[in-house]
Amino acid sequence: MSNDNGPAAPRPQVKTPDFRYDANGTEFPTRHKLPKIEGAPEGAAWFWGKDDFNGRLNLLTDARVLAASKEIKSGKVIPLNLPLDVPKIPSFGREEFKHEIKVLHPSIAYDDLYHLNTQSGTQWDGMRHFAHIATGTFYND
């Protein structure tokens, strides 16, 4: 990988700790008490293991979902998503959403074609979207 300034500097090797937190646990360290992880940025909460790519989603366990389901009182659904075309003009020069209908057979069959930037509106990306700036390190990189 290179840029206009020549080859990119090698990224530090992150050595994840030999432990994992219990995803069903109720106590986790505060930001200031996170264990130091060799090669990771200071304060990184990258303690799920070297092969993990879920991060905090590890906390969405069957037990937690079951417990949360017991809190339902009305069954009312409140969507938190945005329409695919919001914002109409994405920030930072990102591409606008485009929707096309492709005719497969007139009056019988059609396909929807979508072109969207996953950084517009609701986030659809993973944890490798934006690096820790000072080190150029991504989660579990």
Give the overall shape, derived from the CA principal axes.
Answer: extended
Quaternary state of the chains: single chain
Question: Got a strand count?
Answer: 4
- Biggest sheet strand order reads 1-2
Biggest sheet architecture: 2 strands, antiparallel
Strand content bin: 5-15%
- Distance N terminus to C terminus? 14 Å
The poorly predicted ranges are none
Q: What is the structural class? A: mainly beta
Written account of the structure:
Helices cover 6% and strands 13% of the residues. It is mainly beta. It has a two-stranded antiparallel ribbon with strand order 1-2.
What is the element layout, followed by pairings?
Layout lengths: L1 E2 L2 E2 L54 H8 L28 E8 L3 E7 L26
Antiparallel strand pairs: 1-2, 3-4
Keywords:
141 residues; two-stranded antiparallel sheet; mainly beta; extended
What's this, in brief?
6% of the residues lie in helices and 13% in strands.
